[in-house]
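Notebook, bench 3.
Goal today: get a predicted structure for HAD-superfamily hydrolase, subfamily IA, variant 1 from Roseiflexus castenholzii so we can plan the truncation constructs. The sequence was checked against the plasmid map this morning, with no discrepancies at the termini. Length recorded as 225 residues. Pasting the sequence as submitted so the record is complete.
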Amino acid sequence: MTREYDVITFDCYGTLIDWDGGIRSGFAASARRAGVEIDLDAALAAYHTIEPQVEAGEYRPYRQVLAETAQRAAAMLGWPMDDDTAQFFAATLPQWTPFDDTNPALERLHAAGYRLGILSNVDDDLLAATIRHFTAPIDLIVTAQQVGSYKPDTGHFIAARERIGGLRWLHVAQSHFHDVVPAARLGLPVVWVNRKREPLPPDGPAPLAEVPDLRAFVEWIEGRG
């Protein structure tokens, strides 16, 4: 069977790793450590609002982004999180676990002969710790630390294209804002894994395809031959 693509890259956190579950567990562990109570739903919502603002500033290591975002989110909820607790929150990231469909999907794609990669808004060491959760080999890694910027800037995609060369490449991601927008801007085919069943933004751009999870993505790409 002739494959349409040679390389499939993924966003990591939110696409392969349960990002929301990880943030909630990070706040829960941090609150227990500090001896405070916190509304985890409110903390998660605040985190999602604040992190893009922090990432939009001057580039800094992702550990600092995690820590600052956690502190600002906690402050919105009336908890003055100290620096030690913020660093503890950041250090929980390697413990955040994959979605149930992640490893079966990666294994199936690897067995079919695809080269797999990750384009992630994270530091090298944090991603290296996360990759231990995966049961299929990851051949290409592009991090924010390597390119000195955070998606939706296009640095990850430009670096990946340079490394991939002329091979046929498909990107797959959960975040329309962080991944679909910059990929479309560069004319790269991208599949939106719309785990949260979000509506397509009125101004687009539309992905090549939209699927609810990675199981459906594998079925979609197998159906294309």
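DSSP finds ten helices and six strands in the chain. Residues 7-18+97-223 form a domain with the Rossmann fold fold (CATH 3.40.50.1000).
Flagging this for group meeting.
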